[in-house]
Amino acid sequence: MDWIQTAGAGTQLPENNIKIAVFGIGGAGNNIIDDMLRMHPELQTANVQFFALNTDLQHLKTKRYVQNKAVIQFEESKGLGVGGDPQKGAVLAHHFLEQFHKLSDSFDFCILVAGFGKGTGTGATPVFSKFLSNKGVLNLSIVSYPAMCEGLKAREKAAKGLERLNQATDSFMLFRNDRCTDGIYQLANVAIVKTIKNIIELINLPLQQNIDFEDIRSFFKKPAQRLENEANLFRVTNTFTFSFDAHNTIEHFSHKLKNFEYEGFFDHKVEGAQKVILKVLVNQGLYPLDLTQIQEIIWAKIDNHNLEVQLGVDFTDANPSVQLFFLMEKKQAVSSDFIQKPAFISVKEVNQKPAKPFQVLNDLKELGLKYVKQQTGFNY
Predict the structure, then answer these.
(1) 29 is in an annotated binding site
(2) Residue 297: what pLDDT?
(3) 121 is in an annotated binding site
(4) In whole angstroms, what separates CA 229 from the centre of its chain?
(5) Is 151 marked within a binding site?
(6) Residues 6+ away with beta carbon under 8 Å from 170
(7) Which domains does the chain have, with CATH numbers?
(8) PROSITE patterns, per this entry?
(9) Is 30 annotated as a binding residue?
(10) Are 133 and 141 a contacting pair, CB within 8 Å?
(11) Per-residue pLDDT, 313
(12) Residue 28 in marked binding region
């Protein structure tokens, strides 16, 4: 056991060594993990490790920043991929379990990141998640769901994969590629990277009013015993962040949270959530915060009198901020109320009428060009 000396007290305390592993599974998962280490190399430490796993050796070799790489293969597969077949991905994952055990054995919390709709991520992620759950290792899956333009077949594969994943994982976050426009999926990667970074920091950076690892375990962990009517519910999580300054006031916070479903990449409404982790970083000299007012805004949005709240508070020299993690139980893996418009479109512009497939494709292209023009100033 590691010990730290307490100054002037002559006593020793055991050092907190929570170990976290982040596994990027399949092509999309590999891309996200590589992007994460490109943007935040400081996150990889002795206690936080990143892994890229893939059946496609050729793609795996293109990842420059992640150092821990492994090919999910078995004899005749030869690292050539699975041709978009989730069943083949699952079979190879089962053959890979002995190696996965060695990779994951020393970790307390595992985050699995994958794109659903093709072969490796869709097939292998539920296998690895179930293996971790059977060992009692806390695990969270962050997965993406295909956009309409990726085809109905991909969506069918993803939906079946989510059903298998829900039976295996403690909880999952679902990102919808529908929220991206004209195939600008790099925006999704950035959002997922930010989410993983926030989770790692929530665990590793102590607060004055702290949220300890057992608080986090109780938040994400699937109950050992569930009622019969709860057995098939999907345990999904969402996350929301907001930074305060002279131009981003408590009124703006309230507006953004009220319009959460229109301004985020993750699926599912948060009304009726059972649990919330609320992390507040305070700088009263820069922007005074009223915690009671913040909590009232959150409760009004969620509208659940039985809401469980884990509150963490600390001081910062930077802009004050709020981070929220929501946990809900839903009847569907993917919310039925499809929202076409991305975050840069105002709520008033959202068209609630169902669109024809070709209309959606044209809308996606138009909105993608509008976004690029807005971000770069370049006129097409």
Answers:
(1) yes
(2) 94
(3) yes
(4) 26
(5) no
(6) 133, 138, 139, 140, 220, 221, 222, 235
(7) 20-204 (3.40.50.1440), 213-330 (3.30.1330), 347-376 (no CATH)
(8) FTSZ_1 (PS01134), FTSZ_2 (PS01135)
(9) yes
(10) no
(11) 96
(12) yes
